[in-house]
Each structure stands twice: as structure tokens, then as C-alpha cells.
Amino acid sequence: MAPFVVPLISSEASDTLRFGPKAANLAALSRKGLPIPGGWAVDAQAYRVQVSTLGLEAISRAVFAEADGATARRRALEMKLGLMERPIADDLLDPLLSAWREVTASGAPGVVRSSALIEDRADSSFAGQFESFLDLQSEEEFLTAVRACWAALWSTRALRYMAIRGLDPAATAMALLVQPLVRARVSGGGLSRTAEGEMVVNATWGLGSAIAQGEVAPDRYLLDRSGVLKETAFGGKFHSIGCVHGRRAFLRPLLTERCLADEQVAELGLLMRRSEEVIGGPVEIEWALDEFGIKLLQARPLRVAVAQVPDEIWLQRPRLSGQPSGIGWSTGRARVVNCECELERVARGDVLITTVAGPALAQLLGYVAGVVAELGGSTSHLASLARERGVPAVLGVHEATRRIPDGAQVAVDGVAGIVRWMKE
Predict the structure, then answer these.
(1) Residues pairing with 221 in the sheet
(2) CB-CB neighbours of 352 under 10 Å
């Protein structure tokens, strides 16, 4: 029998059918000499064994088979509660704890991340739809995180995402990554190819989840394909997320201080180009910088769009600039939303104007014409999902909710990162 847990640097870990694209891509990067945090990959078969041991197989098949929506939701809840609350099978416990002890032997906290068999693909990134748990301090926290990552396959947002793409959760499985936490001074993301053939790096202080969740407007560095820095734009880095149970430290003195030196930006450009060679095309990366240097946390295929020329009528209109998602151009009625409780005001064909580019907005991407947010950046989870759905988005747009009138006609250029509107 194949082992349930293998070192991430091993050739076995490169098997996407066992360990999912996220883990397999990291393993492939490592085998080509690119820097990653190391750690272990947990086979999706471990999830299947857990489901079988708990007697949940029939319930899993019933979720998408149920015609009645209420019954289907109850079945999904049974799956989540069963995986979350019941103990891990004996056959799995020893290899999981062995991996945990190896990862934390040096005293570093641990991390558990999803690596579903259906995520990090060109047409289904599942960005922000599953779970990652950082700064785990004990075996009890670790085992809870493992169960929570398995259960996340049955979360409402993941099921909604799968339903749109005709995917059945009962036909797939959840692999995992168990890694040491990178004590990041700076973290961020990167796009190896824009519509103009350039590269983009986003950065903020501390752990990168502030960028991923659209809670800050990160610094943005634009490079040409040779790695030469062409443009630097400071973001709104109002806080960082540290590694002590997600504690937030407000960094107003660092708001306009540059996160990366030129040589670090150039190194990230090189790492993106080398990642392209491994993945076989344009990539989106996540990375972290600690006292030892830059480490790649993730690399997945990137969809690149062609720039569109706006209609002449829009070129004379007021405009705001921000960080583009990298795809699309559209128009629609502006709907200014200041909190999630107002999302029901957004109708089909509207352009959502909001503050935080958080995961709750993902549910709107199926019917909005575009998204404009005051926070977030080109490598946030929402930007990834917008690229995947072909929805133009511009993030990090300062004072968008104050400057753009509710109800105005708006044009969103998701490639150039420009928002225009017609005053009434």
C-alpha cells in the first residue's frame, strides 16, 4: 500500500492524482531547485479512508443527488459535522502525527493547507474556497486543522463553486499539505504574465493572508520580462497579520514604506520565470520572505487576457486607477455597497463598488458586470476568481465608494486597472 504521507521533496509528491495540484506543483518546484518551505504531502486516499471509516460514503453521494435543496443541505451538514467532530481513523493517526512532529521539531509552528484534487487548475482555481490554518502550536490544534480541511470540501461556498462547474464533491477528495510556518517579514503574490507581457508582484508586511482576503491594498511592482523594475506603486498597508494566532499589528508608520528592495523584486521575477518552466505556462504565485530569504508557497496556472480598447465616449469621463484583475472590460450601473448586509441590493449586470475585496463577494461573480474595491490587489483571491470567471475587476481603488456615485453608469477596465463613470 502506498504511504498516506510523503515528504514534499519526494518524486511521489508530484502525483496530482494523489496529492492534488497545489502540493504536486510545490513538489515539482522543489525538485527543480526552487525554494519552498518543505514539509509533507498527505495523500487524498487518507480522506477517503476517513470517510469510509466514519460510514459517510452514502451520505456524500446523496448531497448532489438530492433534488430537494433542503435535504441536500442537511446531507452536506452531516458530512461537515462528521468529518469535523469525529476522531481520525487509527490507520491515519500515526503517519499524520509523525509528519507534524518532523515539521515542528525545530520549534517552528505548523501549517495545514488544503490541496484538493480539483483546485489550482487553469479553469478551477478554488482560490479562497477551502481552508488553510497557520501558526498551529499543538498536536490537538493540528488534528483539528486536518479535520477542518477535510470538512471544507463540504462547505457552502465550496459546494456552490462546484455546482457552477458541474463538479460532484463525492467524486473527488481532499489532499493536504503539512508544513512549517514561514515567519514572514513580507509576503505577497505575483503574476508572471499580464496582457501587456509584463510581470506583477504584490507585497505587504507580515503574512500574506491580508492580501489574499482583500484586507489591504498591497504594494505593486511592475517588471518587464527580463526582470527590470518599471514601476512601483505604494498600497494601503494598514495592518499586518503576524504569526501569533493571527494577531494583527497596525503599522501606520509603515503605510508608505516600501516592502521590497529592487533586488528582491528582481529575484521574484526570476522565480516566476523559472516557475513558468516547471508549470508549463504563465503562473500565479504566492510567496513569503523571512530572515533566510524568499520561499514559494504556491504556483498555479494563470489565465492571461488580451487588452481591449474602450469606446471613445468613455475616454473623456472621470477616472480612477487601481490594481487590475487582468481580464475583461465591461459597463454597468454602479451599486455602492458599504457592508455585506447590503449585497442583496446588487442586481444582475451591476458593477459592485465596495471597500473590502473579501471572499463573500465570490457569490456575486456569476451575475455582476464588474467589481471595484478600495482594498485588495491583483493577486487577491477575489482577483483570481474574477479572472477565472472573466469578470473585470479593479482593486485598491482609493476612495472608490466616495467618488463613484451610486447608480451612475460605470466602465471597468480589468486589464488596464481603470474605472470610469458618467455623471448624471
Answers:
(1) 201, 232
(2) 26
